[in-house]
Amino acid sequence: MSQRSTAVLLSSIALDPDGGTPLHRQLFLAIREAILSGRLSPNARLPATRVMAKDLSVSRNTVVAAFDQLMAEGYIEGRVGAGSFVSRTLPEELLHARREMEPVTLEPKGKRLSKRGEFLSGLDLGEGTEPKAFSPGVPELPLFPFDEWARLLGRRWRRPLEDYVVRGDPAGYRPLREAIASYLGAARAVNCDPDQIIIVSGSQQALDLSARVLIDPGDTVWVEEPGYPGIWGALLAAGAKLVSVPVDEDGLDVERAEPRNPAARMVCVTPSHQYPLGVTMSLARRLKLLEWAKRHDAFILEDDYNSEYRYRGRPISALQGLDEEGRVIYVGTMSKVMFPGLRLGYMVVPPDLVEAFLRVRILVDSHPSSVALAALADFIGEGYLNAHVRRMRQLYAERQQILLNGAKMRFGDFLDIEPDDAGMHLVGYLDNDIDDVELSRRAQVVGVELPALSGYYRGTARQRGFLFGYAGIAENEINSGLARLDRMFRES
User: Fold this and answer.
1) Does any domain span residue 248?
2) Which of 357, 383, 409 is the last residue of a domain?
3) For residue 261, which of 290, 305, 298 has the smallest C-alpha distance?
4) How does pLDDT run across 17-44, given as a tens digit for each residue?
5) In terms of residue numbers, what domain contains 309?
6) Which residues touch 298 (CB under 8 Å, ≥6 apart)?
7) Is the peptide bond before 134 cis (omega within 30 degrees of 0)?
8) What is the pTM of this model?
9) What is the rounded CA–CA span in Å between residue 37 and residue 221?
10) Is 399 found in the same domain as 350?
């Protein structure tokens, strides 16, 4: 391409001074597109910056900035005493624009994953979906006091401490740990001081950290059946051997677990409100579990995932408060009481294990976000969290009743669903000859998230049914979702 034809081509570029994109960026994009489409061929000489600026009626600085960017990204090259030219080293496939890119098939390049990587990437532990009726575990988001939360964040950012932007405490912002310790002592009867609390990015990280510190490959861990698949993933990633322990109306059955493997290294439980069944572990079972842990030098990971939402009776004290031997690692989360995207949780670690947990935590991600933790300390200290939880507790109780009434009216002849004293979902039980997995799949088609109860069993499911989340579902959505399910069930 001659220099004259190149100049004519570039002078035809139209720049919009009133557009939202800076002029030098518009020029850069226009010249790059001409190169990639082949309208400017390799080795084509570009006009001098003064000439192009005059032709386009822009300042020379605008053209210089565009050329500098093109040169930095390898689209053009400068030659001493000769000017600027389209690069001769562009890959051939970039010089011809194609309307439809042909699919690229990559040839295998030998071993790409470790054995552990292959194993973990092949696990099917359930994948998250966009929240909809009746997604379990989703809080009411529109009524969260985001204005107050934004104000507290802004206040912390306007005059950030050096710790916010340079470094952070591996255990987390101490005033927040002090606030959590005070809250847990009063509300959950947890026996701890701030030095035992470690702030983490959600309960999943707490599980992963506990597994890294306490579990060796091949160690046995008891897990509840049915139980939470996310726990299985963290433990399997640590190389643990999982033993499923049945859950009945009194919680995890210790007596049935001991004959299977009495010398397990750890047991993971949700004693205050078992997930997914919602039962509460009895005091006798709690004491038996603590005695077993002492006898076998084992640990108990207590996941207290939504203890704030109890609608009848007094809150059930945490298992950790009964522990006198330093056997319990207590885990809580802010995702259910605030919003999931916050990704903040906490754990209470026995005093003699704190240093080890912090050293491993530093290896994983150094420390949590200091600004968010400082804002959360203010949020708790100024009473916003307690006020929000009180409002949500009343709202969730009302929504549970709406769901219960509607489900009994529509599905009472084949679905057994009863109220729960706590939590954010109800379990509806089906006859065991009904395929809950297939019905769950069909519910997805009509826009309803209805997890199958059998999916929470690692082995053969002893019960079939569905989880009905209600906390973050407005009344009209509850009724609409039930109506869609009703039509689907009638067509089954």
Assistant:
1) yes
2) 383
3) 298
4) 887 788 889 899 889 888 888 888 888 8
5) 146-383
6) 263, 264, 265, 266, 267, 292, 327
7) yes
8) 0.76
9) 60
10) no
